[in-house]
Amino acid sequence: MKIGSTVALAVIVLLHAGLAMVIFADVHATSVGEGKAIDINPGKLRCCTNCNFSSSGLYTCDDVVKKCDPVCRSCVVVKTYPLKEVKCTDTFIGICDPPCK
């Protein structure tokens, strides 16, 4: 009887630990942005004038430019007429770079 109850207790503890990991993963994913984890770019932009810095040490650059910086992974077109303009939507680690000239 004692071995059976020990095995049952071990199974309950393992199930509880698994449930806690699932809950933590879900809370973490939703806390960083509506069910999506933030894809962090470890690169560094050459410059950024309109920088959005957060206290978590992450920043995004809201500059609208003719061509994205080479380190940008996700360059989105924001305007097509009369000239095409784009914006890098990556999230970067660190501090904002110097303003663009």
Quick tags:
two-stranded antiparallel ribbon, 6 strands, 30% helix, 21% strand, 4-stranded mixed beta sheet, 101 residues, alpha+beta
Sequence of strands across the biggest β-sheet = 1-6-3-2
Order of helices and strands: HEEEEEE
Shape: elongated
The fraction of residues in strands falls at 15-25%
- Count every beta strand, where a strand is a DSSP E run of 2 or more residues: 6
In short:
The protein is α+β, with helices and mostly antiparallel strands.
Overview of this protein structure:
The longest helix has 30 residues, at 2-31. The strands form 2 sheets. A 4-stranded mixed beta sheet has the order 1-6-3-2, with no helix packed on it. Strands 4-5 form a two-stranded antiparallel ribbon. By secondary structure, it is α+β, with helices and mostly antiparallel strands. It is elongated and about 80 Å long. The protein is built from 1 helix and 6 strands, in the order H-E-E-E-E-E-E.
Sequence-ordered SSE layout with sheet pairings:
Layout: H1 2-31, E1 40-41, E2 51-53, E3 58-61, E4 75-79, E5 85-88, E6 91-93
Parallel strand pairs: 1-6
Antiparallel strand pairs: 2-3, 3-6, 4-5
